[in-house]
Amino acid sequence: MSDNELGLFLRTRREAVTPAEVGLPAGARRRTPGLRRAELATLAGVSVEYLIRLEQGRDRRPSSAVLSALADALRMTPSQRVHMYRLVKGADPGFHCLGGATPNRVVRPGVQAVLDQLEPAPAAVLNRLGEVLACTDGYHQVMGPIGLLDGGLPASIPRYLFTDERARTAYPDWEHWADKAVANLKEGPYQSDSQVTALIEELTVTVGAEFTGRMERIPGFADANGIARLNHPEAGSLRFAYERLDLSADDDQHILISLPADAATADALDMLIGRRPGGLRAVSG
User: Fold this and answer.
1) Rounded distance, CA 174 to CA 158, Å?
2) How far is CA 267 from CA 229, 234, 264, 278, 279, in A?
3) What are the start-end ranges of the H helices in the chain?
4) What is the pLDDT of residues 3-34, one digit of tens each?
């Protein structure tokens, strides 16, 4: 696995920002749609040589002023800035925010009560291993037939995506979800988390290059909302708008909620779950 997460994150952000977004001409003979190192260095007020050192991992502790300049130049969102800051702090082995705590598999009664109130929406509580710890009946009706919950709870989403052939049929955008699963595993100081690294080592052996290649090129920063397409064996083609709601640091868990992204999905979900028509309204994605 990569040991240069800050450099990987900076490089992928640089390659994702177009010249037009920062007021530069695209120019001819551009081999990458993103920014050149020289362009980013000029925008951030640093030398190209220093930027190369950061991307190559030869300097892993840039100053706050440099981080701010890079974040401004790359048009980073607040969550991206927080992630970059954590990567820099994570390079210091002297302090670990989690204190060696193992991934939490216990869902507090209060969290379970919140989950119960989300019925009939498909919603679940997950931990940092990508395990489904608890879910609504709506989630079970949607995800059960595609095979995710065959072994009961907790159910590992990364294992399902990478080792169950049904996942590629269920998710027409499988490549995106495989990327997202890796990004979720790499969130935070994952290399000092023994259970996360054990899962990564397991998938490295059982899956091979399709997993390890993503570990090398995907930064540990996953989206918190978006649109998910699902080919359901009973309800057909579905589109969901999903939202991730992070719980407290003590819980070390999050709730993932999916709502129908169009009227056809809302109707199909009503039939699948056996609710009255209009039980789940479509939201614009």
Assistant:
1) 12
2) 15, 13, 5, 7, 9
3) 5-16, 37-44, 48-56, 64-73, 78-90, 109-117, 137-143, 157-163, 166-170, 174-185, 194-206, 209-217, 263-273
4) 788 999 999 999 999 998 998 887 767 777 79
Express as a percent the part of the chain with pLDDT over 70.
91
Query: Nearest Cα to 40, choosing from 59, 5, 16?
Result: 16
Query: What is the residue-wise DSSP string for 160-210?
Result: HHHH-THHHHH-TTHHHHHHHHHHHHTSSSGGG-HHHHHHHHHHHHHTTHH
Q: Which residue has the tokens 């609710």?
A: 275
Phi-psi region of 27 (alpha: psi -120 to 50; beta: other; left: phi over 0): left
Provide the residue type at 164 as one letter: D
If you search the block for the tokens 């930027």, which residue do you land on? 51
Sign of the Cα torsion 59, 62, 66, 72 reads positive
Closest C-alpha to 219, from 197, 195, 173, 186: 186
Q: Answer whether residue 282 shows pLDDT above 80.
A: no
* Other beta carbons less than 10 A from residue 119's beta carbon: 16
Distance of CA 209 to the CA centre of its chain: 20
Whole-angstrom Cα distance, residue 280 to residue 99? Answer: 41
What is the C-alpha separation between 261 and 241, in angstroms, rounded?
Answer: 5
Measure the CA angle with vertex 145, ends 144 and 146; round to 5°: 95
Q: Under a CB-based contact definition with an 8 Å cutoff, are residues 75 and 227 in contact?
A: no
pLDDT at residue 26, rounded to an integer: 74
Neighbours of 159 (CB within 10 A): 21
Could you give the CA distance from residue 245 to residue 125 in angstroms, rounded to a whole number? 9
Q: Tell which phi-psi region holds residue 119, choosing left (phi > 0), alpha (psi between -120 and 50) or beta.
A: beta
